[in-house]
What we know:
single chain; 257 residues; alpha+beta; Sortase, Chain: A; 2 domains; eight-stranded mixed β-barrel; 8 strands; 21% strand
Amino acid sequence: MKIGRRYKEQAKNKVKILFVIILIITLVLISLEIYKRNKKDNNILIQDIANDNSKAEQNIKTERMTKLEELQKENSDIVAWIEIEGTNINYPVLQGADNSYYMTHNYKKEKSKDGSLFLDKDYNWELPSTNLLIYGHNNIGSKEMFASLLNYQDENFYKEHPKIRLTTNKEDVEYEIIAVFKSRVYYKSEKDVFRYYYFINAENEQEFNEYVQESKKASLYNIDATAEYGDRLLTLSTCSYHTEDGRFAVVARRILE
């Protein structure tokens, strides 16, 4: 009798142990399922946030491009909008049949001593060309156009304003500055000088590298950022009164997303 009871108790204990094991396994499986669902939900939420941020950024770009398109209805010579945050440089960029008209006319084609910011006439949008060479006045006593560009003579100013934003019909991108230098318009008889104002399109890698190297060499201070063959360049050029026919230039490269 005692042996029979012992077997019954052992059998009951085995059933209890088996039940506990099954219960533990069930709880573990349920926990894993909950974890998977939560992880999936979190991933979906993260993706939704990323998509929303991407859409928001795209909306900003679209808005700027739309404003540009509206301006182009008034004047088809408007090809871009340039902005350097924290400065007065926040203007449309024109491109005319020559490099003289927009020196004396604003974007509405009205006579103006300050003129407009304008892209060199030889820049080819179909290629597109290597270097967006943009000119602007630095008239004495005026704070318009590229007057504040000369603030880049101060390295601290550069560190606070290292980027330039350019909006076209096709893109709304930033350029990072790689060189800042003083120059002048050279006589035809002068040899082995850096005529940066002739560089629109690089025919080959050597021409590109020479322009970047000469710009870095002439820079008023060292800038770590540089450009490599294949990069799109932006050069801003204005008058400077440090010498006769003086010029001041800022060179930057497009930041790829």
